[in-house]
Amino acid sequence: MAAKTKSKTREFSTHIDIPADKRAPLIEMLNQNLADTFDLYSQVKQAHWNVKGKDFYQLHLLFDEIAGEIEPFVDLLAERATLLGGYATGTARMAAEHSALPEYPTEATEGRQHLEALVERFGIYCARIRQAIDDSDDLGDPSTADLYTEISRVADKRLWFLEAHIQTEE
After folding, report:
1. What is the mean pLDDT of each run of 10 residues along the chain (170 residues)?
2. What confidence score (pLDDT) does residue 125 get?
3. Which of 155, 3, 34 lies closest to 100 in space, CA to CA?
């Protein structure tokens, strides 16, 4: 079956009972969050590879653990977009072009610099995922909202872990 182009989203026929006018914005949103998630994953790996300083070992392990929890969401978001009849736009270049996250600071080497950079990016990411929960509900797709809720739980917890390293009493 041939694909048709509608805005930025390629669509294919499906028997999913969500109307096409609801599926198109869901697919676009899923692809946007796919880009953000893939970018976040790569930025956490950047921190993992390049962290230096007295907390090297614990942060190296923490960053790798976080990346390992984020990576499966790339696949889940892409598959949700395709099962809704869409086309997943999930290459590294596509993610870099469409991610809403700021570029990772290459001057970051010391543990605290990486923590601050990741806290900023996780804060943005968590807010966007929470918005996607609401938007999915508004579009009548509780399954996509549930996927975003699952992602939100993990991302919020990881934001907490990262923040705990740099929080102090005021």
Report:
1. 44 71 95 98 98 96 98 97 94 93 96 97 98 97 98 98 88
2. 98
3. 34
Q: Within a 13 Å sphere around the CA of 102, how many CA atoms are in the beta-carbon half?
A: 12
The crossing angle, in degrees rounded to 10, of helices 56-83 and 20-50 is 160
Q: In the chain, what are the domains?
A: 20-164 (1.20.1260.10)
Cα–Cα distance measured from residue 69 to residue 71, given in angstroms and rounded to the nearest whole number? 6
Q: What residue has token string 């549930």?
A: 146
Question: Counting every residue, how long is the chain?
Answer: 170
Answer whether 0.70 is exceeded by the pTM: yes
Which tokens is 118 given? 């990741």
pLDDT (0 to 100) of residue 97 = 94
What's the rounded Cα separation, in Å, for the pair 44 and 49? 9
